[in-house]
Amino acid sequence: MKPLISLSNRIMQRYLPDPFLFVVILTLVVFGLGLIFTDSTSIQMVQFWGEGFWALLAFSMQMVLVLVTGYVLASSPIFKRFLGFLASFAKSPGSAIVIVTVVSMIASWINWGFGLVIGALFAKELAKRVKNVDYRLLIASAYSGFVVWHAGFSGSIPLSIATEGHPFQDLIGVISTGDTIFASFNLIIVAVLFVVLPITARLLMPSKDETVTVDPSLFNETAAAVETEALTPAEKMENSMVLSMVIGILGVIFLGYYFVKNGFALNLDIVNFLFLFLGILFHGTPKRFLAAVQEAIKGASGIVIQFPFYAGIMGMMTASGLAVVMSEAFVSISNDVTFYFFAFISAGIVNFFVPSGGGQWAVQAPIMLDAAQTLDASVAKTAMAVAWGDAWTNLIQPFWALPALAIAGLKAKDIMGYCVFILVISGIVISLGLLFL
Predict the structure, then answer these.
(1) pLDDT band of 56, cuts 50, 70, 90
(2) N- or C-end of the chain: fewer Cβ atoms within 10 A?
(3) Membrane spanning segments where (predicted)?
């Protein structure tokens, strides 16, 4: 297996472009496919692209805050000690790879934004403590846990169809999460992945000669010093814990109110709110907090510049009908046995071009739900097949890897050689589960 891993890494290092170039190429590919497979003209495709370009602005800001607030929280003294405690259980490179995969999967199953950040931050902590561990594989393993997010508490598709008044209620009614997230077939797939993925990641460890390590000292952040002499009134406020404690406690009070009212219902805004105000409290003073923010924001450039291009791609895919054409092609070759499998595969392909669970469901749902009813298939399982497909190809989609890569200080080509193997293995597990459970 090691020769294949080595070959995969060499191919990715040589041929996988920077994520910005990847999205530019993807834009041109979708533009061409729209001209070939739909009746859209070149002027219309340009129009669809431009009109969709800014559709993800709110989401882009949320992702920037996921990165920044997560980094700020993790760089606080208290959280560093907590991550250090977890990292102390890793006694060898192999155990580090297994532990980071499991922790990332647990965090991603709870909430996808939480998982993206925690996995990468924990991987960095392990890299500081465990000698001779391949840093690329460590980050790839942390990112691999993201594959279970759409089958967990923050899965946008199962949560959508469980909500009164969802767009397809007239067609399928309201479907409880007991039939989707907590259905036996879904829980079995998740459980198997919790066993298979850590083992797979462990088997992907390169030979000693090809192991890429990092100098642990590169991860040491210098906290802002607290000044004590000749302070102006403004400087006294910047170095005072009082303001941080007051505003931080207000944030905690709101979180307590939210969880009492809504239960443990995490969404991206609440995750960011949690990270932000814990970061304010844990850093102690405004000066230390702002120094951490300034350091964190350096890694957000990829998100800021690339997400609008993905929004443009999504605009072309949906407005031209190209996403519908792709979905219908797979439905046409399905029967009552293979339907869930092909729903999963089609969703995985569409996910490359429409990297949004909610957006993808809006496009694919009419075709998939109609086909499910025609074939007398389970609507709930159909929805989860699409959800799994959406999560699956994220493993090789730079769009979702950007926050983790920014935290890690790596490029997409550094981890994708490993992610390809994880994609194949997880795809087999999910496919078998959808076919036979």
Answers:
(1) confident
(2) N
(3) 20-40, 52-74, 94-123, 135-161, 181-201, 241-259, 265-282, 303-325, 337-354, 415-436
